[in-house]
């Protein structure tokens, strides 16, 4: 099919022709094909003022009224730009994907029947665990509300299967507004952005993190089909963007609540490349029996608070 490059003005025209067009040239290049919108940075032009960057509701309305079904975001966009587009897509009810390389090495493509059994177990186990752990989760919610004012849950954009962006759920373990202080606290820290004595973490939050209780709401992500019980770590945007392009196909895998990195190394291994190769090895050698072993290994690691902070 012929590929057509369009500007924001063209997107607006397809979305709502009655609106007036803007004369500002875009510093993005938008590639339209088969009802998909691929957003790339246009390095040939200097960034100029654009209405959508100041008014996310405008962009959301454009997407909502347009025939766009999903938006693919290039990996050369910044973290703030990815988050901006992801929020706009979520408001418009459109799917947002980080554009990652296709790969045939995924177990979903190589072992379809066994993969279906894995997903059936994921949904069944997640539902059962949510029912059984509901009283504990209610107690945790109460403790968070008593100790620190603000929302009980924390959500953050993560990269899921085939690069799809989704909001990962956790119990809030930091002070309100901690996200805005992230790069100030981490600075130029190489590797995974994890800090043992992070000043943003609350007292109850440290306890929840030590025993991984903050991750219990991710069972909801499993029920939604966004995660598995076992799989690679769901990368945050600031980590995903720093991956070597040669291993970026790792982002095509379905992420999990626990996985090889979590039970073998966790916070003791923060090298981004090393953690990525561990995940790639898991995907290349995936089996139901391997997932079962990882689940069994997770239990003592959680009870002992292995490598968690």
Cα-to-Cα separation, first versus last residue: 50 Å
Rounded mean pLDDT score = 81
The biggest sheet, with number of strands, parallel, antiparallel or mixed sense and barrel status, is: 5 strands, mixed
Described by the principal axes of the CA atoms, the overall outline is: globular
Low-confidence stretches: 1-10, 12-26, 46-52
Regarding quaternary structure, what we see is: single chain
Q: Number of helix segments?
A: 13
Give the strand order of the largest sheet, numbering strands 1, 2, ... along the chain.
1-2-3-4-5
Reading the helices and strands in chain order gives EHEEHHEHEHHEEHHHEHEHHH
Number of strands: 9
Proportion of β residues?
5-15%
Label the structural class: alpha/beta
Describe what this molecule looks like in 3D.
The protein has 309 residues and is of the alpha/beta class. The protein contains 13 helices and nine strands. A hairpin with a 2-residue loop joins β2 (28-33) and β3 (36-41). α1 (8-15) packs across α3 and α3 crosses α4. The longest helix has 36 residues, at 112-147. Residues 1-10, 12-26 and 46-52 have low confidence and may be disordered.
